[in-house]
Amino acid sequence: MKVTIVKVHVKSEFIEEFIQATKINHKNSVQESGNLRFDVLQSPQDKSQFILYEAYDSEESAKAHKTTPHYITWRDTVADWMASAREGMPYEGLLPEISSE
Length: 101
Hints:
Distance between the termini: 13 Å
Number of strands: 4
Largest sheet: 4 strands, antiparallel
Structural class: alpha+beta
């Protein structure tokens, strides 16, 4: 399982717009072949801080996500709303174990 944890810091004046754009990206991402999970988290202490937890069944599925129209639209839409560059941290998902069937 390929997991990416993406740290996002949004300018405070764009928080609601970011959430709305991210809802569209989430809705489409969870329908992708190979998507296992796509969680969007917001810090209760700092509403401008978000984590995107993306899990895919393979490296190929994770890479394919970056080529989808909904991801490209999201990326371009939210770019100017960032207080700092997004930070994606790749992980190998160990549990739950994913069947290779």
